Amino acid sequence: MSTATGRSRRGIRRGETASGWLFTAPMLILLGLFLVVPVLMALWVSVSDWGGRGSPFSGSVSFVGLKNYAALLLGGGLAEQDFGISLKNNAWYVILVVPCQTALSLLLAVLVNRQILKGRGVFRTAFYFPSVTSSVAITVLFLFLFSTTGAVNAALGWLGINGPNWLNDPNGIFHFGATSGPAALEQGTVLGVSIWDWIGGPSVAMCVYIIMAIFTTSGTFMLLFLAALQNISGEVQEAAQVDGANGWQRFWRVTLPQLRPTLFTVLTLGLIGCWQIFDQIYTGTRGQPAKTTLTPAYQSYQASFINQEWGQGAAIAFILFVIIIVFTLIQRWVLRERKVSRRRMRPYLQAAERAGGAR
Length: 359
What we know:
The chain has 359 residues and is mainly alpha-helical. 70% of the residues lie in helices and 1% in strands.
């Protein structure tokens, strides 16, 4: 009897497995045709000398190994220098955008989640609206706002501040107006870019894109944090309040640890989006002034479609892919669940022992 029952259960499970594969087969086929196959083709292009004409798998296309990667990382020429500049620009973009948009979106979520706030639906819609607006339209709007005679400089003028020529100023904001640095920093280079330029921060022109990214993405991440906040039990907050915790302690010790999965999601999406910035650069300055708004994604497009160096363009894309994977793994390691140390557990254990003894 038991043997027959076991066989029937295995038969049911095999049927469920087959049904699962049958229902997911169309999507798997589509993903394979339009995602996996193009990625493999691009990988082949990155290690070949394909010139953009004909099939990349024709007999006239030769395997060149890591030549395209070496030209970007070790070539010592213009390709390496441009790649170093684009990495520097994008790295500062990530460093400034991701923390700011995460903090702002969490702040907005906490504000619109308060029961005493009237018209919360209006505020949620207003904060989220820039996220659903076309990035091209937002970019054009910011080009007008930050032009020399735009609204931003006009507002600064009312405060007695002479606004900069935002989109045409290549100076690094952390150079503080200095045109040159110490000889050691000027002579030392990484990927063809001097250390002085690496530490100079983003250019004034790049700051426009940083402000725009924070403005347009915070609303989306606000919704993620808002959904997570509404899933937190109010009983936990009430218990912490009864124990004497003030508002900041409740947020830091109770609320924020429960937002860890959402925080990981927001940071991951922020990192991926920031390292892939392209349409704003293409619509706006196209890497200018003086290549201070050049990014790896735009350089990949420029190398492939403009300079017809398809191998280097594909190589940039895969280097960017590795960078994103590495940063995601580091972030996952930093935000991982950690075991509570014995030193931190000791007061709680002692309190539990005293409570047990009192009983």
